[in-house]
Amino acid sequence: MRRLKILLAAPVLALMLTAAEPAAAPDRPLSDPAQEARAQALFKDVRCVVCQHEAIADSPAGVAGDMRRLIREQIAAGASDQAVRQDLVRRFGDYVLFTPPVRAGTWLLWFGPFVLVLLAGGTLILRARRRPTEVAPLSPEEERRLDEVLANETLRRDLDATSPHDGRLSGSTIER
Amino acid sequence: MIVEFGAFALALALALSVLQTVLSAAGRARRSPVLAGAAEGAAIGAAAATALAFAALIYAFVISDFSVSNVAANSHTDKPMLYKVAGAWGSHEGSLLLWCLVLTVFGAVLARARGLPFGLKASAVATQGALGSLFLAFAVFTSSPFVRLDPAPFQGASLNPLLQDPALAVHPPLLYAGYVGFSVCFSLAVAALIEGRAQTAFWPAWGRWVRPWALASWAFLTVGITLGSFWAYYELGWGGWWFWDPVENASFMPWLAGAALLHSAVVTERRGALAGWTVFLALLAFSFSMLGAFLVRSGVLTSVHAFAVDPQRGMMLLAILGLTAGAAFALFAWRAPQLKGGGMFAPISREGALVLNNLFLTAAAATVLLGTLYPLILEAASGATISVGPPYFAATFVPLMTVAFLILPAGPLLAWKRGDLPGAMQRLAVAAGLALVCALAAYALWSPKKALAAAGIGLGAWLILGALVEVAERTRLFRASTAETLRRLKRLPLGAWGMSLAHLGLGVFILGAVVETGFKAEAARALTLGQSVSAGPWTVTLDQVRVVEGPNYLAEQGRLTVRPSNDRGRAKTVTAERRFFPAGGQTTTEVGLDFRGLDDVYVVMGERAGTPEAPAWVVRLYWNPWARLIFLGPMIMAFGGLLSLLDRRLRLGVGARRRRPA
């Protein structure tokens, strides 16, 4: 019974596996390795327009195969990478490239992260300059509490102190 | 019957969660330990009830009860048992129930925690209860997994075959433990804002309460994301492991925020400083978790990982996200100016280094957020459609993180309050020199010559060596006697080991990622039996193709021989499959993986080509050098997090809270 199922299913399976891919003709790499390398690099930046967030380099979809063939043909005909990209954008829109265009609408996208770091870094530097790095002297109340703590507790050495300076400091002044 | 019992338990959990919120808030307002104690009981009850509901759902999946609509939609009698069980969290309803389970169980552990001041704990338990109420209400009223079908079908529609994989069976529970673990940080942060302690003594203690949760959540999330990435790597059959896909980004944002939180909580715990910032990050981490859930579930983003998409429920999630994050950040804006942490420090100090770490990690999280949401925002605003993919992140995220990694090894060598930068640099000189040698050697020896990849190798080596220098410094290696070094090594706190391991794991990951990205090779060819294809130093020959029958699929299985092209080395046989699942009419690939040291030789059986007389199969071959490190590195990082979690200092005064549930 099982065997029969396999026998019956095998042609169906073969049909399913091939019919799903009408453009199953495997990719024919360009004969010039340098050109083929350029094509491969472009494939990684071009989105398969019917897939979900997949580059045509990775997509098994028929459309992706067509797009790969198109790009290879253009490269073989001597088009520059830039020209191929422009042609793709003309046909499919900006959406087709995984590298978003740099224009007024995308400045925030491209420069936002760096502006953020510069702004935050600048603020930090300004604050560090304005704020005295010396620890303010203790108030009389704090002095009193410090005395109390020192009198009542046996402080042990801070095991977590990584810097040898830390260790030496606590070792000599507190551990007594 | 058991299914109805599950539905009842779920409703009961919602009622108990509401009760938990109300009782705890009332207990806090009236300073009544009795009410607060009752709220803690309700929290434990809610967790137990959710666990029962979850068990009932798993039971329905195990016995294939197709009268339950969720089971009928996601299971099949032919499915192996592991995937029947995993099917319980494979759908929207089931995964939401899992989310609620983690949320309430963590809530119960929080309720059992000892040593927290009364007000803070009552507020935190109330907040956690409110979160639980919202998500449980969402589950009960719109997404109950216990809805019956009448008439019941004879067979189920089965789980998406892509998800039928051991790594993916455990991926959601781990991921959710991470996502939802941040809810406790969130609740503790909201509680701290409500309690609004001005005295400096409060914040170190608060930092100590938050840190174990942040550590545990971050470690879970690390493992969860790594498993997901590994699954995508070998199951999707595309040879890659990360594509800056929106769903990948959705899990990466809370991870980055969580990593920032871990580091800033250290400053708050040790020095009482950065209190407001740590509170902010605690709110941010869980907000990102909820945003991630929304992005994945709502279908606003297209992704290869987007399963169980439903726009209407997405809107509900957005409402929950807006309500909770909105309220929490409003509270933050109101109270933050009054938060007074102590702890002055000089710019060059451990604190200063951790502030820089936070600057870069949050900027990185913001970059990922921007890259993920920008296409949506732009399309809504101007109608223009763009795609944001790997090239964008390579140009923004990568340089930011590179700067952060360059600074990283110096941080742990600086003292608290005021550090000695020249001293730290002097101690790192050997590591820097060796890292430079690694980079130069990689450039000279590895062909094709790639300057960026070589620099990346140097960066990875820098992190690994930096972590080793850190341990050597703590133990005074070569500067004290061997006995003294050994004594210090033995007394090194687990937290220190954890930190060094995590940083080392990061270096390991970078090595793997850089080498794999820089030097991988691939080839695809239609092969008839006996023909070969080569990529990098490997040649693969197609030996045999046969049809095999799995429990719920049929497959064309290819047997292929992998051998070094120069014939120096052993040949190995791998099998790769192309599976057809009749239940859903889908085709998947099973990659043939040959582990060669750190490298992967990765073989995918493609579609049939050629003529019926001379059949051929498209075989895609990838050589992924050092790919093993990509998944090993994060595991080391997570293990470091675990070690830190076991540190005695975090256990002290934390009591029962340390006993973490699975």
Automatic annotation (TrEMBL), chain A:
Residues 13-150 form the CcmH/CycL/Ccl2/NrfF N-terminal domain. Keywords: Cytochrome c-type biogenesis, Heme, Iron, Membrane, Metal-binding, Signal, Transmembrane, Transmembrane helix. InterPro entries: C-type_cytochrome_biogenesis (IPR051263), CcmH/CycL/Ccl2/NrfF_N (IPR005616), CcmH/CycL/NrfF/Ccl2_sf (IPR038297). It comes from Brevundimonas aurantiaca. Pfam families: CcmH. Belongs to the CcmH/CycL/Ccl2/NrfF family. Residues 1-25 form the signal peptide. GO terms for molecular function: metal ion binding. GO terms for biological process: cytochrome complex assembly. Possible subunit of a heme lyase. It comes from the Bacteria. PANTHER family: CYTOCHROME C-TYPE BIOGENESIS PROTEIN CCMH. GO terms for cellular component: plasma membrane. This is Cytochrome c-type biogenesis protein. The chain crosses the membrane at residues 107-126.
From TrEMBL, chain B:
Residues 318-648 form the Cytochrome c-type biogenesis protein CcmF C-terminal domain. It is found in: Cell inner membrane. It is a multi-pass membrane protein. Coiled coil: none annotated. Keywords: Cell inner membrane, Cell membrane, Cytochrome c-type biogenesis, Membrane, Transmembrane, Transmembrane helix. The chain crosses the membrane at residues 6-26, 38-62, 96-113, 125-147, 174-194, 215-234, 250-267, 274-295, 315-334, 355-377, 397-416, 428-446, 452-471, 492-515, 626-646. Pfam families: CcmF_C, Cytochrom_C_asm. Residues 89-298 form the Cytochrome c assembly protein domain. One of its GO terms (molecular function) is heme transmembrane transporter activity. GO terms for cellular component: plasma membrane. Belongs to the CcmF/CycK/Ccl1/NrfE/CcsA family. PANTHER family: CYTOCHROME C ASSEMBLY PROTEIN-RELATED, CYTOCHROME C-TYPE BIOGENESIS PROTEIN CCMF. Required for the biogenesis of c-type cytochromes. Possible subunit of a heme lyase. This is Cytochrome c-type biogenesis protein CcmF. It comes from Brevundimonas aurantiaca.
